[in-house]
Design goal:
The protein has 9 helices and 11 strands. With about 250 residues, it is of the alpha/beta class. Helix 1 packs parallel to helix 9 and helix 7 packs parallel to helix 8. The longest helix is centred in the C-terminal third of the chain and has 17 residues. The chain is elongated and about 70 Å long. It starts with a strand and ends with a helix.
């Protein structure tokens, strides 16, 4: 079956230079960006149940821009004034720059790593070890941060947002030839929206081993997987698959 319409379970790229647009043009396919999951913040009432006082903290560790949004939204909801002396530690420069949406960017109070891993922040955290750190996380966080514990960093995890299914409307079409997933939660959402889902000729692609495992555990067929040596990204894996399909069709 020729692939004509692909659902990518991510938000639409903000840049027109995305490889997905190149693939759509190259192979004459329609690529639709439609997340199966979405993030929503906890209510102030739900947050209070954790018995965490935001005003007690002198520094915040951010691992995602989503965490930044929900931290500042929660502070506003609880009417907590964030002091000018608050320090921010981010796992990447991109996340650090996102702070400009909420606060004046000053290098003396904003620190970031280069690898995207918390481990990379340890030297900076140790230099400011007297700070009391807050770590905003989602409800699906694995809850373990061995490097922080090993370095005896004083920190408190605070669940501020949750991942939920982004349900399909009753009249929303589901006429895709391929579905691409990036998390196990996306697979769960698929089965929640379509309890009687039958894969048939629909191809399924995914990024990451945990997502691949979720596909298999759900009894579905995995047709495209990334990363792998010849396809380090989801777009490169998709390109290789469509190229092979085109060759087969011409024979």
């Amino acid at each position: 079956m020729k692939i004509k319409k692909i659902l990518v379970s991510q938000p639409k790229p903000t840049s027109e230079k995305s490889p997905y647009f190149d693939i759509a043009q190259k192979y004459g396919v329609e690529v639709v960006f439609r997340p199966f999951i979405k993030v929503e913040g906890l209510s102030s009432k739900e947050f209070r149940q954790q018995k965490i006082s935001l005003s007690e903290f002198t520094a915040v560790i951010f691992t995602a821009r989503t965490a930044i949004d929900h931290f500042f939204e929660m502070c506003e909801s609880l009417r907590v004034t964030i002091p000018e002396t608050m320090k921010y530690f981010c796992t990447t420069e991109a996340i650090a720059l996102y702070l400009q949406k909420y606060t004046v960017y000053r290098k003396r109070k904003i620190f970031f790593g280069t690898t995207g891993k918390l481990d990379d922040l340890i030297p900076s955290l140790n230099k400011h070890c007297k700070e009391k750190f807050l770590l905003p996380v989602s409800d699906v966080s694995n809850g373990e941060y061995p490097m922080l514990d090993k370095s005896k960093i004083t920190y408190t995890k605070a669940v501020m947002y949750r991942t939920v299914s982004n349900d399909f409307a009753p009249d929303e079409p589901f006429d895709y030839d391929m579905l691409i997933f990036f998390s196990p939660a996306g697979i769960q959402s698929l089965l929640k929206n379509f309890p009687n889902f039958e894969q048939g000729d629909i191809r399924i692609g995914c990024f990451g081993p945990t997502t691949a495992k979720a596909v298999i555990n759900a009894g579905l067929r995995l047709d495209i997987e990334a990363p792998r040596p010849e396809a380090p990204s989801m777009t490169s894996a998709l390109d290789l698959y469509l190229k092979e399909q085109t060759k087969t069709a011409k024979k």
